[in-house]
Amino acid sequence: MTENKNSFWTLAPVVVLVAIFCCVLWGSASPAIKIAYELFKIDASDTPSRLVLAGARFMLAGVMTIFFGSILAKKPLIPQKDSWKYIVILSFFQTIGQYYFFFMSLANTSGVRGSIINASGNFLAPLFAIFLFKLEKVSVKKLIGCVTGFLGIIMFFGGAGALVSGAPMTLKGEGAMLAAAFFYAISGCSIKIFSKHENPVILSGYQFFLGGAVLFVIGLTLGGSLNFYSTGCYLNLIYMGFISAGAYTLWGVLLKYNPVSKVSVLGFVNPIMGVLLSALFLGEGQEALSVASIVALLLVSTGIIIVNYEKQVISR
Questions:
Q1: Would you state the pLDDT for residue 4?
Q2: What average pLDDT does the segment 153-161 reach?
Q3: What pLDDT is recorded for position 219?
Q4: 8 Å CB contact between 290 and 257
Q5: The pLDDT value given to residue 2
Q6: CB half-sphere exposure, 155, CA atoms < 13 A
Q7: Residues ≥6 apart with Cβ < 8 Å to 277
């Protein structure tokens, strides 16, 4: 149910533009991280420093999420005592697990490849919700959408034969991004379960900070460091924090005032933005505009639309 069907946030142009803005933010994560590696001079083999960078980003994202959420709620967002167990579990899957592999992947593969593989989380999530967590009933439509999306990813890498041979993929690159998508799918199902007991903004904000703190401490303990060589380093870190906090907060507002399917179906823009922004900021235009990439994006986007599309029932 929506709180106010006449709200500003229910206007079709507002829903579309805000959703696209969120997808632009999420899609910019891959190029922003790869640019951060250059700004902070973090080598692909320097795992500890990557963890410090990831930790700093998500501690900042956590503070921003709680701050923005508190403004919207018009009160400080503080978790209930019993909610900390949910925050700890969620931080392991959504931040520690997912972004350990996400940051590793982007040090070893292109932004275009990372964006396309990362979209697999959109198809793993409904499969886990149906078969692992029993949160949803088996849906032929969702299964068709998942198959369509995975087909696009497989075709991008040269078909099933190429995946079996392993020639175009590496465990530290594409394999790590697939692991990140796995953790993303688990965290999505976890939020759905835990949000029955606690405000999802509180869950995400505090788990961002907790997960980021864990990554930060592990990175420092292993000898990592974060050296700010220029103003660009500060701006990049603030922006990476805002990617998670800003997109999550705005997406949450849309979900608050609109049917879930009306908002989620627009998520097909996310992988498109990831590929386009990687082409724009990382000079990966040749890969982004290849026939394989375009076909993969079409299939992945179609799969996301099929999975999330629901006919709107108008009640009188």
A1: 54
A2: 72
A3: 97
A4: no
A5: 46
A6: 17
A7: 24, 27, 28, 30, 31, 111
